[in-house]
Amino acid sequence: MSVRQLAWRALYEVLAARVQRPEWAFMNYGYAVPPGADGPALSPADEPDRLCIQLYDHVLRDADLRGADVLEVGCGRGGGSSFIARDRRPRTTTGLDLSRKSIALCRKHRRAPGLSFVQGDALAMPFADGSFDVVVNVESSHCYDSMDDFLAEVHRVLRPGGSFRFADLRSAPEMAELRRRLGEGPLELIETSDITERVRAALDVDDDRRRSLMEAWIPRMFHRAFAPFAGFRGSSTFAAFESGEMQYVSARLVKSATV
Q: Which segments constitute the Methyltransferase type domain (predicted)?
């Protein structure tokens, strides 16, 4: 494991250890639906996390998961895996994350039919070949040492005809390379969408709420370092989305049914 990946793991271990509140279920930047469009119907309990949930809804927008075995790689604090299990009704939903403390939080706080959590590396997943019908990866791959190795692992654990649903951010030069790797990898690239403006809009709309949660949940000593990570207005991350220096895409890929 590289120094880079160890640093990301250490960050998430610290956050899971220091902030164990079950209300903090999502860590993605969110997705604001286009003007005039309707978001998904949510329960009152899920409504505070609407923008984060809408990113998952966008990624899975045309997927019928009933009866499927679904894997979320990089499940974080488990909100996305829990939403998938409760809303899309797959047969099983498995959340995988490198952080042991995050997985402990998930096992403690996230409950849904067929939902389970496993600690493990996205580049060496602890699953047999052909274990899943759908693999989901939301705002996590930028932490990995090798996108090629990750895509090879996704291909390995998917069943023939299985689907990979993906969303993440990169700098503009890195995004060009990411698109190339998605297109030339072992999975067939069906579509990509530039959702940068939808993600930036979500950060803008949700700024006040996210700042209040930082004040309430994150120890003050971490506030300055947390602001760019959280993408607050005025942060370098938010400015990079505004300028186009940072981009965000979603993608749908499939494994050949004849493999």
A: 71-165
